[in-house]
């Protein structure tokens, strides 16, 4: 494989992948630890903080709210200001490309006695924010958004009251925004989730001393509890590891060892799907850290059956569907999924971006309003890939390139910095 240039990267077929990979800290967990550490009392020290540009956006916003943060590589020290210590920002808070930053921070900002404005890049400025504005408005915050409920968002916070909210969309970001706002309310805020989503916020809240309870589909938080700063460790990012899990399975003769990967059961739908399909992924050395499960994964190349992804697995796979679509082309029966209309409002329209780029590589794909059908046993050929300014599309197609004939050019490849800055270097290392 030869890789060059910072704008475009060229990736060719690999004869095997081999080696050990340690991933950066989980992006979802890092956002949450940083936000909670900021409103806790005393100092927090977060180890293995995510190297992603998205998590840096969260840190930047928190600094603009008067929080002292020191970062040295993957260790972040945050001097918590307590529930009432955030300062009004002097300008707009820039969430960059990060949906988690803008949505979850909206929850905290709704509880503040000042006005804030949140902005984002071009992609974030097209994403729906009504889903957070609606419940937070019910709690008493005042929201203004641009056309169609997109950013910029202006929030007049303060004087919130508790609500019980049944989630109309499966979204951990929206759930988290409500729970974070609930910290500033006298009384109990309840969120009802029909479809369970990642529960890192609930785990972190409990760890830091919040008064939180869970019963079946309801999560309840009682406000005004004192949060305490902590020494925290972030497990490796399973959504980054997903690219190497898929690559290890579909590139012949591969053998990868992935270390310290976060295996919270609300995130492991990828393994629940791939193992019964014939994927040789073995989980070893399981341990619990800060209430989060992690372990090592051994991945060996496999013959994969493919088939239809059960709809109940889809919310738990949402970030992995682009790379799973690539995997689908290498299965016996191909891969079909429905119930994933959310993919149209991610960093790009991921259904359209995956279908377009798979076709560029010569694959047969059918696009539905809420899913894709990817034919199996496809011979991919090298092509020019347009990631549509989306990190996960760029990485998914770098994986496709490993099993394609000829060379693939991934345009705008530095997009990977959004979640996984070392992606291409890591891929090059295991491809030998
Ligand atoms: C995330 C939740 C998911 C996911 C995103 C990260 C989180 O989004 O796609 O990458 O950290 O809570 P939704 O909450 O919109 O489903």
Q: How does the overall form come out from the CA principal axes?
A: globular
Which oligomeric form is depicted? single chain
Number of strands: 23
Estimate the helix proportion, in percent. 25-40%
How can the largest sheet be summarized? 4 strands, mixed
Ions, cofactors and other ligands present here are:
shikimate-3-phosphate
Instruction: Give the C-level CATH assignment of the largest domain.
Output: Alpha Beta
Distance between the termini: 8 Å
What count of domains describes the coordinates? Answer: 2
Number of helices: 12
Beta strand %:
25-35%
Q: Evaluate the radius of gyration.
A: 21 Å
Q: Give the CATH architecture of the largest domain.
A: Alpha-beta prism
Mean pLDDT: 97
Structural class by helix and strand composition = alpha/beta
Strand order of the largest sheet: 2-15-17-16
Notes on the structure:
The protein is α/β, with parallel strands linked by helices. The chain is built from 12 helices and 23 strands. It has helices at about 25-40, 55-65, 100-110, 130-140, 170-180, 200-205, 240-250, 270-275, 320-330, 350-360, 390-400, 425-430, and strands at about 10, 20, 40-45, 70, 75-80, 95, 115-120, 140-145, 155, 165, 190, 210-215, 220, 230-235, 255-260, 280-290, 290-300, 305-310, 335, 365-370, 370-375, 385, 405-410. Strands 2-15-17-16 form a 4-stranded mixed sheet. The longest helix is centred in the middle third of the chain and has 13 residues, at about 240-250. The structure holds shikimate-3-phosphate. Shikimate-3-phosphate binds near residues 172, 198 and 318.
């Amino acid at each position: 494989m030869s890789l060059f240039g910072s704008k475009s990267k060229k990736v060719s077929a690999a004869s095997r992948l081999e080696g050990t990979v340690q991933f950066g800290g989980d992006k979802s967990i890092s956002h949450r630890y940083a936000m909670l550490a900021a409103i806790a009392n005393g100092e927090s020290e977060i180890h293995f903080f995510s190297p992603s540009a998205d998590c840096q956006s969260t840190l930047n916003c928190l600094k603009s709210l008067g929080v002292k943060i020191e970062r040295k590589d993957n260790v972040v020290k945050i001097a918590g200001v307590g529930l009432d210590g955030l300062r009004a920002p002097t300008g707009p808070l820039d969430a960059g490309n990060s949906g988690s930053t803008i949505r979850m921070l909206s929850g905290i900002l709704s509880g503040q006695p000042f006005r804030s404005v949140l902005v984002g890049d071009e992609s974030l400025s097209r994403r729906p924010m009504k889903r957070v504005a609606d419940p937070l408005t019910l709690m008493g915050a005042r929201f203004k958004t641009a056309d169609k409920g997109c950013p910029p968002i202006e929030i007049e916070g303060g004087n919130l009251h508790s609500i019980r909210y049944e989630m109309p969309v499966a979204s951990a970001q929206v759930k988290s925004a409500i729970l974070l706002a609930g910290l500033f309310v006298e009384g109990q805020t309840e969120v009802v989730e029909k479809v369970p989503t990642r529960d890192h916020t609930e785990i972190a809240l409990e760890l830091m001393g919040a008064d939180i309870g869970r019963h079946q589909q309801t999560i309840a938080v009682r406000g005004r509890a004192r949060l305490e700063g902590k020494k925290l460790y972030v497990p490796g990012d399973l959504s980054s590891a997903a690219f190497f899990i898929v690559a290890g399975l579909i590139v012949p003769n591969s053998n990868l060892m992935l270390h310290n990967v976060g295996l919270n059961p609300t995130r492991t739908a990828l393994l629940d799907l791939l193992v019964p399909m014939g994927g040789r992924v073995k989980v070893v050395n399981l341990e619990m850290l800060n209430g989060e499960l992690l372990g090592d994964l051994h991945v060996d190349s496999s013959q994969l059956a493919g088939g239809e992804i059960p709809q109940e697995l889809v919310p738990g796979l949402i970030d992995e569907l682009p790379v799973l679509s690539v995997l689908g082309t290498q299965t016996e029966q191909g891969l079909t999924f429905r119930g994933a209309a959310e993919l149209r409002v991610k960093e790009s329209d991921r259904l359209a971006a995956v279908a377009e780029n798979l076709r560029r590589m010569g694959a047969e794909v059918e696009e539905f309003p809420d899913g894709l059908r990817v034919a199996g046993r496809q011979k991919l050929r090298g092509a020019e890939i347009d990631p549509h300014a989306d990190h996960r599309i760029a990485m998914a197609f770098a994986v496709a390139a490993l099993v394609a004939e000829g060379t693939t050019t991934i345009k705008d490849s530095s997009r990977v910095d959004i979640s996984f800055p070392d992606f291409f270097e890591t891929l090059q290392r295991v491809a030998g």
